[in-house]
Amino acid sequence: MLRPLPSRLQTRWAALCGVIAGLAGIGVSDLAARLVTPAGSPLAAVGSVIIDLLPAGMVNFGKDFLGGADKPVLLVIIAVGVLALCAFGGVAELRRKGRGTAVFALVAAIGLVGVALGSGTDVKAYVPTLVGMLLAAILLSSLLTRLRQWHPARVLPGPDDASDPSRRRFLVATALWGGAAAVAAVGGRLLVGAANRISDARANLRLPTPTTPAPAVPAGADLGIADLSPYITPNDDFYRIDTALQVPVIDPEKWSITVTGMVEEEVTMTFDELLAEPLEEHVTTLTCVSNEIGGNLVGNARWLGFPIRELLARARPQAGADMVLSTSEDGFTASTPLDVLQDTGRACLLAVGMNGEPLPLEHGFPVRMVVPGLYGYVSATKWVVELKVTTFAEDAGYWTPLGWSERGPIKLASRIDVPGSSVGAGTVAVAGVAWAQHTGIGQVEVQVDDGPWARAELAEVTGPDTWRQWRYAWDATPGDHRLTVRATDAKGELQVADEAPPAPDGATGYHSVRVTVR
Ligand SMILES: Nc1nc2c(c(=O)[nH]1)N[C@H]1C(S)=C(S)[C@@H](COP(=O)(O)O)O[C@H]1N2
Ligand SMILES: [Mo]
């Protein structure tokens, strides 16, 4: 049977379906990027790549010529190009099922390359493009199925074509999806645009030099063993725990923190005011209460910030208060003992910097709390906006009613990082980290199978608030072995051997690994 050639009218409808599907795909990928990571917006990523590829002269010309609108204009140009490709995809799909999907796959591939060149390592960043492309392909195929059922390709429209139910079904579906796609595209762009504006504000931020710098990291803090956690954890590798579905994006110009509750005077501080204070830098290891024995919800960074005790002092806490309930912009709260935050010997910071950079958005930009010695859930509030001076009797942090302890001092722990599960016989480096924040590590011991505990060599540290690397030279003999580690803190307290799960106040037990020696 001869297939009728698509009429010009049908071809135009197919092109429109391609545009609608493409628009929906772009919109959904932006919305997904806002949920997953701003770096995952294919449109923005391709835009950045083009800016990087353009000769500097042209970029400057764009800036001069268009003022601040150079980026939006570029994004519109890219969007128009993408939608033209999608229109072609719609026509291709009309000619033969599956061809439109191929065109959309090509468009998605361009987006994925843009994301890859932009954010690189983060696998999550590819999800928005893939989700958007999948939706676009499904939508296109469904709209075109309706278009084919309508059959405008008939030589001449029948007399009652206007009342043809398949025609109506196609037009209604196209109108509804077209509207939804436009809303998704505009909404997605606004959300991603806001996130990108804050990312730019962060990138352009110059942090003040600390009045009190952290002690230099001694060369001997890093034993330099492959696969051993570095003493300072790079920001990109730092573990992340959030209750919020999406990372809050806060304009530092609009941020402020207020001390409320049982105080003589409420005190508010803006971001500029905070930066104008004398700031100090301190190296502190954060740990999550959910960390299992041997787990990796722990990381060490150099934090720059203003002492929380100074801000509290200005508000003058009243007698009887024993807790500070810190609140995040996203509603998360943490209960921290007031005396810990007032302790002059403890570097509890309203932190603005992490390893020499403004806080990454995921780690609390523009301001978070860092408290040496307490698990993050009762101390390390990210995106912090309020400190309410109160009592444990009166208030509770986010996790306490959910079964976690109202107080969370970090438990002494140690971990084996190397070797892996299989090594050659001979002298093998066994190494890892141990932590007892605010007390310090005094000794680490390693046990091979059921043998005696042998002392490991300890690396240097900046102070008691960080983890400590350790290593032990193991004379490995062929066969299957078990290595176990335990630590003693600087006060002589031995790590608890009894195994306990993370809930309600932190896991205990010794970490051990199995190694096959060849
Ligand atoms: N706003 C907010 N702050 C938060 C949390 C959170 O879910 N929301 N999680 C806390 C927990 S449980 C931990 S362990 C630390 C983790 O900080 P990180 O994500 O920067 O590693 O942040 C704390 N601060
Ligand atoms: Mo945590």
UniProtKB/TrEMBL annotation:
GO process annotations (BP): sulfur compound metabolic process
Transmembrane portions of the chain: 12-31, 73-94, 101-119, 125-144, 170-192
Gene3D superfamilies the record matches: 2.60.40.650, Oxidoreductase, molybdopterin-binding domain (3.90.420.10)
Pfam families xrefs: Oxidored_molyb (PF00174)
Molecular-function GO term, any one: molybdopterin cofactor binding
Domain Oxidoreductase molybdopterin-binding: 245-395
Keywords, sorted A to Z: Membrane, Transmembrane, Transmembrane helix
Protein name: DMSO/TMAO reductase YedYZ, molybdopterin-dependent catalytic subunit
